[in-house]
Amino acid sequence: MENISKNTAEKLLQIKAIKLQPSNPFTWASGWNSPIYCDNRKTLSYPDVRAYIRDGFEHIIKEKYPNVEVIAGVATGAIALGVLVAEAMNLPFIYIRSASKGHGLQNTIEGAYQAGQKVVVIEDLVSTGGSSLKAVDALRDANIDVLGMLAIFTYGFKTAADNFTKANVELTTLSDYNALIEHASKIDYIKESDKATLAEWRVAPDKWGK
Predict the structure, then answer these.
(1) Are the C-beta atoms of 28 and 208 separated by less than 8 Å?
(2) Which of 160, 51, 60 is nearest to 120 (CA)?
(3) Where do the domains of the chain lie, and which CATH numbers do they carry?
(4) What is the pLDDT of residues 63-109, one digit of tens each?
(5) 55 C-beta neighbours (distance < 10 Å), count
(6) Hey, which bits of the chain come out as E strands?
(7) What's this model's pTM, rounded to 2 decimal places?
(8) Collapsed DSSP state (helix, strand, coil) of residue 92
(9) CA dihedral over 10, 78, 134, 147, signed as positive or negative
(10) Where does residue 196 fall: left (phi above 0), alpha (psi -120 to 50 degrees), or beta otherwise?
């Protein structure tokens, strides 16, 4: 996993799916100031990168969850990724909306599934884990057995770790904040002096820069 983590971080930086700007922070939709911005949807535009991510997910699933029956994606960022994995593994695919559709059947889960089926959930990015675990709740409410969740990247917030532990969901990611910062430092993407600032942000992201 160490090589996968490093290589994934390298690819995300190369295609600018992740940007680091400690001296010129971004503002998230939540209002938080952040030295990092992650847009993993960009991975879909690069065939070699999306294939690497697909293969990484497939390897982990076969190793950790060999009895999986269905692949599920969290809307909207992980729908395409989930389809790629499901296609590679010749498995059914479903996806989970952030909220029930306001018309028709008013589904939260789209696709064909049966109660009791074993599912692995695909996500693109985990921050606090709130929206990701909401998708897990929807699956469990439908009596679907969630084996675990896989994501491309996590910021590694303690809040997220606590939320996943509380929900009894195993999270595995292709890369994370520590691997990203380590690689960014090695290639001089960031200065050595930036590392302390980047570490401080993750400890208290809601207060950082205020």
Answers:
(1) no
(2) 60
(3) 2-203 (3.40.50.2020)
(4) 999 999 999 999 999 999 999 999 999 999 999 998 665 544 468 99
(5) 14
(6) 18-20, 26-27, 33-34, 36-38, 70-74, 93-96, 109-110, 118-126, 145-154, 171-176
(7) 0.93
(8) coil
(9) negative
(10) alpha
